Amino acid sequence: MTKIVAYFLICKFLIDFFQLFFMNIRERLIKYLDYKNISKYKFYQKTGFSNGFLDKKGAIGSDNCEKICCEFPDINLEWLIMGKGEMLCCPAVQPAPAAAGGENTTIYKELFEKKELEIKELNQEIGSLKNQIENLTKTITALQFGLDRAKKENAELRGGIAQQPNSSEKLHELPEVPIELVAEQEKKQQKNALK
Length: 195
Prior knowledge:
mainly alpha; elongated
């Protein structure tokens, strides 16, 4: 029973961690803009994003990240997407000449597509973990119900013997039902009921 609870807590922690990890891209972008003293309005003008883009929830697509990196070439892409490393890749980076822009765009696009695929795979894993948590929660609830029922039956059985003559001797003779046995029997009954 404690293993199930521990597994449940670990799964919940992983889900919370991945959600926190992927929801901070916009916050890091706002931090960068504050550092560079760039207003949201100027950011929207420069990138062509609609007002409120920075205030939305959810992931930023690779095409949007590409626009951001083209307009702000000094931002560290790894920091922006994953939160690793320094905010600025090079403090004195100048915008690339127009001729080299196509090559940089291709590199950024490949990197974004790779990261987008990783995010998609991690989201699938999160979904799988959520399903596992849901199933474990149902199992815990069923086991708790069976345990409560077994305790009640055990108390009723002990109470019935206590009301009979010479019951004090019989009460001490009645064996205590181990919790593990009750849980195992309940699980078998559930499996048989599903068949």
